[in-house]
Amino acid sequence: MIAAVRTITVKDMRQRLRDKSFFLVGIVTPFVLAIIFDLVFGGLGGDELEVRAGVVDADQSEISGRLYEGVSAIDGEGGVTIVTFDGDSGTGPDGTSDGELDVRSAIDEQGLDAVIVIPEGFGADVTSGGGQAPRLRVVADPDRPIQVGIVESIADGLVTDIERSRLAAGAGQQLGTSTEPALQEADLDLHREWPGGEGLDTGSRMLAGMVVMFVFFTVSFGVTTLLSEKETGTMRRLLAAPIRRDAILAAKGIVSYVLGALATVILMVAGAVLMDADWGPWLGVSALVLAAVLTAVALMAVVAGIAKTAEGASGVQAIVAVGLAMLGGSWFPVASEGILGVLSQLTPHYWFLEGLDSLAGADSGSVVLPHVAALVAIAVVVGVPATVLLRRRLTP
Amino acid sequence: MPCSVPSRGRTSGSDGRMAERFPGTIIVSAVNDPLVEAAHLYKRFDKLQAVDDVSLSIDPGETYGLLGPNGAGKTTAISMIAGLLEPDSGTVTVAGTQIKPRSTQGREAIGLVPQDLAIYPDLSAEENLMFFASLYGMSKRDARARADEVLEVIGLADRRKERTSKYSGGMKRRLNIGIGLLHSPRLLILDEPTVGVDPQSRNAILESVEALSGGGMAVLYTTHYMEEAERLCDRIGIIDSGRVVAEGTTEQLISRVGENDRVRIEVTGSVDAAIGHIRDISGVVEASTEDHAIVVMADDGSRHLPAVINHLVDGGAQVGSIEVTRPDLEAVFLHLTGKALRE
Ligand SMILES: Nc1ncnc2c1ncn2[C@@H]1O[C@H](COP(=O)(O)OP(=O)(O)OP(=O)(O)O)[C@@H](O)[C@H]1O
Ligand SMILES: [Mg+2]
């Protein structure tokens, strides 16, 4: 068994390394993309992302007051500065051109990226328990899209929380069980993380996002050869040979894993050397990388197990790889609340990036244990059906 | 047309299989023991019974041909014999070991040459050979030595380092066969190895199969070319719709349709007067009319041809083209299945 696994592994490795796509897709593309994104969105290997946001309470209700305090409290967290404006002094009510003008000039004068406006009637919307959903307005500086995105995601998260408790209260009212409306549940969780926060700088974060996205492509080359062996007819020979069928699967898994890990390590070392990325304690980083590559192999194996042809598999694998990457925050931060937040946390990308985020600047690699555990859990949950499916593909 | 090849050193006995061996023949396994025994193989794909009770046995040094049209079930049958495919029921024994898809036992005894090319295009001929040699558990040294031998045999020694994607179709075919021979199997299974090969390469392939079988290897050869089956095979199983409808030496099979030649003469005008006279010619077994033609079955068609034509002309008919067919496997196939081997 071991000899057969080794033989097939060596053969496959030779084929893959001969095939330029490993270098192109596995290493060159993600690196180049990360550099481009970094140039577009921030200084190369540059400073931490700073966000300056303002908050205005135009409503002056009890609920808006609590929200206002909540937002103010983020000040100083993860590179965010919050400037507060008193809703009575100077800023007109929501929607009026006066108010708009004031906010805009405040953005210019104070060098703000965006201002969160709690509009008039916000508190009433919340307590009504039905009808119109409460909304926050974000007035933005169009020249600072990344920073604005962060402010918007803060606002989104807040509204989602409030909306959740509002609907719960509304439902309670209808059932006649509770007449006490709203916000008592909404102990606003204002702790959020985003790129350039306490952890990774923008450049490293971009690179990490690309690394974890492209490792899916890299490992897919290894797994998909199981299908191409059927197409080249060589599967018949493998099946006819005096080797255990599991040896074929094992070899394909190992090749994918090694290629994935290799590409990841090369990219992260390149990031450290060329982009001054500081990934944090190497033991933790290694554990995170090894676990993330494992989930990538498992997920791509499931696709290969379902697909009919190698070409079909590659297509679906590309969709899955890009889709999961977007959902998991490889491209841009994803809200951590709501359905999207839950879905996001089901992706390996999320755990990998969060893990790296907490590793950067950490004293010990052990901070990453929950992330590694989550990744391993995903790998096991996906890997078992993947193995079953792929075993069934071992036919002539 | 008998199918015996003298170099093979054995003749077919009355039971169609076992025979005495001439001195000097390499005896690979115990005398009287077939090397391959497939018993009552069945395989169904959804609604299609691809293989329907196929049994066959092959002796060492014997070449067994599975002759049948496209979709007859040849590849499916040999996939079960080679242990690739699990039969719905039935057993396969090769060199005394039962072959099962989930077990590795007995696999060394079998060499498989798949119908479709089964080589890695991005590896060289040498790398392909070394890889499969290693899968069959050969040491690096043995593998290298055997790869050298095989490369000589298949005539690719001077292009061994080239990627096979750059080979011509015939070269790929030869490598495909070479990989099957690599580990010196006792049973070589060739699935239509000459499809898409020019006549010259095809002859070379047939010659090497003859040589291998002469060396004591059992060969299972599938084809839908009856000439190949007639030339190579000691025994032939005719397979159609998953069933072996007849089995035996070429002679035995042909004797099933009778030893008679078939003479077909196109005529215009009346043959009614002539046909009675033709039937009276001694040696003519049967005479009948087809549309615009008369068909005569006779023990020696050419010898009786002048007499037949005389009777036709005397009867007032005009004679067109004439065709004399000696009985062959094609005729056997037609006789047994009512359809032609190749459309
Ligand atoms: N994996 C499969 N799934 C479904 N049907 C199959 C499968 N393999 C073969 N068949 C069907 O079984 C029948 C026998 O196929 P098989 O390949 O054994 O024929 P063959 O005699 O080798 O034909 P050919 O001379 O064209 O190679 C065909 O009708 C084929 O379509
Ligand atoms: Mg076939």
UniProtKB/TrEMBL annotation, chain A:
The lineage of its organism: Bacteria, Bacillati, Actinomycetota, Actinomycetes, Jiangellales. The keyword Transmembrane helix applies. It is a multi-pass membrane protein. GO terms for molecular function: ABC-type transporter activity. It comes from the Bacteria. This is ABC transmembrane type-2 domain-containing protein. It comes from Phytoactinopolyspora halophila. Keywords: Cell membrane, Membrane, Transmembrane, Transmembrane helix, Transport. It is found in: Cell membrane.
